[in-house]
């Protein structure tokens, strides 16, 4: 049953966003994070769904392989995905006149566990087993 729920959520996400996040994805902004959380609700693809399994919210730049943990502006680890603590070079548009900052296209939302980066889909699958 849990696998069916994960697969259903992944299918919904694939309809909303690119099926292969590491190849092509839309530029990420605050609304996109909310949509991703909605698509992965009830799975390990959200901070709430994988919190007790050792995952921490993070981002990865697929151009460089650099991974950055989600954090508050003061550097404290954040329990959810925030855009405020990311490197300046990852931000395309601060969004002062719009809905908020936008990240460059090579940034992937995911999680870190044991120094390994997981996309939302990978985290959801890992937590389903």
What does this structure look like?
Helices cover 29% and strands 19% of the residues. It has one domain. Strand 3 and strand 4 form a beta hairpin. The protein is built from 4 helices and 6 strands. The chain has a 4-stranded antiparallel sheet with strand order 2-1-5-6. The longest helix has 15 residues. The protein has 129 residues and is α+β, with helices and mostly antiparallel strands.
Task: Give a brief outline of the structure.
The protein has 129 residues and is of the alpha+beta class. It has helices spanning 2-16, 30-39, 47-50, 120-128; strands at 56-61, 67-69, 91-93, 102-103, 107-113, 116-119.
Give the tags.
alpha+beta; four-stranded antiparallel beta sheet; 4 helices; 19% strand
Termini separation? 11 Å
Q: What radius of gyration results from the CA coordinates?
A: 14 Å
Proportion of beta-strand residues: 15-25%
- Overall mean pLDDT stands at 79
Class per helix and strand makeup = alpha+beta
Shape: globular
Break the fold down into its secondary structure elements and pairings.
Layout: H1 2-16, H2 30-39, H3 47-50, E1 56-61, E2 67-69, E3 91-93, E4 102-103, E5 107-113, E6 116-119, H4 120-128
Antiparallel strand pairs: 1-2, 1-5, 3-4, 5-6
Helix pairs in contact: 1-4
